[in-house]
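Here is one chain, start to finish.
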Amino acid sequence: MSLRIEYFRKLRELIQKIEEGDAVRQIEQAAAVIADAMKKGGCVHLFDTGHMLDSELVSRAGGLVAFQALRIRFEIENTVRQRPELASKDRSTEGLAAYALKSSNALPGDVLVIGSVSGKTKLPVDLSLSARKMGITVIALTSVEYSRMLKSDHSSGLRLFEAADLVIDNGAPPLDAMLEVGGLDAAICPASGIGAAVIMWSVTAQVTEYLLADGLKPSVLKSINFPGSEAFNQEMMSRYAETSL
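Its structure:
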């Protein structure tokens, strides 16, 4: 069997696992939390460690205006000479997330979706813990199977799936990649990005269904390549700014 055919087979298995497994209940719970926050004027923030989530969902044709990215950038420029003492210097970034949230537009009652495949690194865990202290509901999108195998880098010892309010398992296997290939020392074709996209678009569909059932119409974007879409999208963004929908 060719690798291309095997990839599509693995892809179908991944989507079926998401569609028919525990993720269905998790998706419904997440959508209910998000829809409830939007109805109350809350905002939905997406934070991702680099595997598609905030670029896939934000400002896309057919996407909800309410899904907006939270991006944290921190840069230090310091070109003094290197010294031996620097090797043992504490460079922990714990605490940065709390500052970032205070500096952001996040408020209690909002929802924060955090995407991290391994769920073990400091920033996603720190961000989750800090957000929950602020009264923000945290939804984690992670590979639970993979994460259970790893030790947390955070001082709490928690991994993301242990630090969030709700957890959606993206279905990615340990090490993320799906295809074992003879002659290679590592598998190819990661599952996490596609799994995250499938899950979050299904969350989008479920949020839309919940809101419409309550007589509320969420703001949805059209493709900017179609005539008239620019004015339509501007109207949708203005509507979102006023209503949170």
